[in-house]
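Q: My collaborator sent me two sequences in one message, no labels, and asked for predicted structures for both. Can we handle them in order? The first one she listed is below.
A: Yes, handling them in the order given. First sequence, followed by its structure tokens:
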Amino acid sequence: MNIWQFIRPYLERYGGRMAFSDTAMTYSRLIEEVEARAAEYKQKNRMITVCGNKTEQAVDILAVLCSGNTAVPVSTEYGADYAARVQRLMRNAQAAPDTAICAFSSGTTGTPKGILLSHDAIIADMLAVSRCFKLVQGDRMLIVRPLCHMSAITAELLCALYAGIEIAFYDSGFNPTKLIQTLREKDITVLCTTPTVMYHCARRHPDGLRLRAVCLSGEILSPGRAEYLAAGFPQTDFYNAYGLSEHCPRVSMLGPEDFIRKAGSVGKPIPGVRVRIDGTNELVVSSPCIMQGYYNMPEATDKALRGGELHTGDIAHTDSEGYLYIDGRKDGMIIRGGVNIMPQELREVLLNMPGVEDCTVWGKEDENFGQRIAVNVYGTVTPSEVRAYAAACLPAYMVPSDITVSAEPAVGSGGKLRTGDAEMGRLYSIYKEEAFGQHTADNI
């Protein structure tokens, strides 16, 4: 079934309720606007890029779906060149009738992939998320992530519309103080964001917020950070979720009842999803929410989709109660002198060091050991202090070789702390142009 055909009866039921508060658009008005714009598309089964501010983009995504075409959401928050490259690639591109969205990866660590997702897959994921992350009448959601992320489209926009709640959009460059002010002014009760974003909000003593529920995703959440957030927002129900665009995106979710008891876990699979961990410790998923494949990338598709299962590329484990934990990316593993090291292990140790606010860990090529460990720390410490702390807490093979300290953490669009094999000096020189909007003095 077409997503618009599925969700329209719910929107009609909500009638005069406020849908998009920024433009005072009711649910009835939203239906009229979407269907008027959809009528402008005379051709069918085309790939249509959708850009603009978040309110415009939300309406346009729905209009493209309503028209029988495939939406290709594009955000300039990854840079104007990136957006133009995707738009050129999609010009006059044909789409299969059952393909709803082609979601492009950021392309920050290589060639961006166009992830083809069907109407049925997105609807199935939306319904499963709605059963786990309950939205109630009177809720007001602020969407902060770019609307090219499937998390923002499925788990936020579509779930909020399905529940009939009020939605506001945050288009400003990311500034924790400004975000907190927006949350207060709009009286927001529901927020979906990354652990990094939430942590930097918590550090600013956000008194007066009425956040009823917060869903964290997009990064590995350390147990220490989970406890810090729960203490900073004692009236808030925290959820920790895991997913990937290739799965529309949600795979699993940890509820507030387990947020501290199982701190750091991403919970258990959402309804309809089955997971297993293969012999290489890679997480493998089977469900109705799996992508159709990558656009014009048959080899990459065959590598990810095998035997009807999605091979996520994420290293994971479960505990004795079946709770799932994500350890890191398979392709991000550091192999130093023949020893496998997950960057997250080292990062969690360094986050406990006084004076360290955040850090990124990655591997660099090394002639003698294959790879050496590089760390960039955001905080008030020196490289020698970091090395001494690591040496006291970790085995010798995990002590980083290259340590730098920065006054600002590196995050990409969507608020994720950036890691990878690229030189961090280069990332720090460009990240402000790719982070949550335009340049701000307080970008995170």
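Q: And the one she listed second?
A: Here it is, processed independently of the first:
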Amino acid sequence: MKNIQWFPGHMTAAMRMMEKHLSIVDGVVFVLDARCPAASFNPKLKKLAGAKPVLYVLNKGDLADERADVLLKAIRAKGAAAIKINAVNSGSRRDITAAIEKLVAEKRERAALKGQTKVFRFMIAGVPNTGKSTLINLLAGGRRAETGDKAGVTRGKQWIRCEGFELLDTPGTMPPAFENQRLARRLAFVGSVNDDILDIDDVALELLKELSEKYLKRLEERYGVTGGTPLEMLDCACKKRGFLLRGGDYDYERGERAVIDDFRKGKLGKITLDSPEDLESLAF
């Protein structure tokens, strides 16, 4: 698979905007994908946050298995505040609100002692398609931020007023360069990299390879895969789904898109791609 690099011009502008607004926020909420929190950790954003208190939200927890809980503990072991949620589930609202409030509990107490009612502000940041806008809509109690399943939906800043605090929604921003291509591929798998710049053949075959190493049983249940090369596994998926062209050849394009879509929508079951080892070198 070719090296993945994706940092369009609007991301440079987004980084500058975020840097400009950091002086007026009280904390930063970094939204990660629970299936690959190491891959969706952007060190440039962490550096940008500086000394501001940070909360890491492992979103899409409904698509991740118990391995994500191990990763959550590993992040907390680094001294970081972190929580795992599912932003499309209204029941997560109380948990995330409590975690955000904890970031500024001392500041709020000091303000109360002075008779002040302070509205705290938080910047919501992360790589594309981790669910930042969905999280904001959950906290705001309604659809106020634009959402979508394509990387790069949010292009400009949006201030959203919530009960007791304000949230600044920011565009999804990638690192200017990916040093670890294994993690970059996982971002492609989950849809954080714009599909339009990717070779769909490479993405599907690499995804099948990685899934076969960790979740072969899932591939067997869904497609009848019992092993073999990634291309042989794709053959099984095409055969199982009936993706055939005239003459009996497999329709690889439909098969590839089906495999990727099945993974992203959880049709292969709950899956976590990262391991604790992937987190070791990251400075949370």
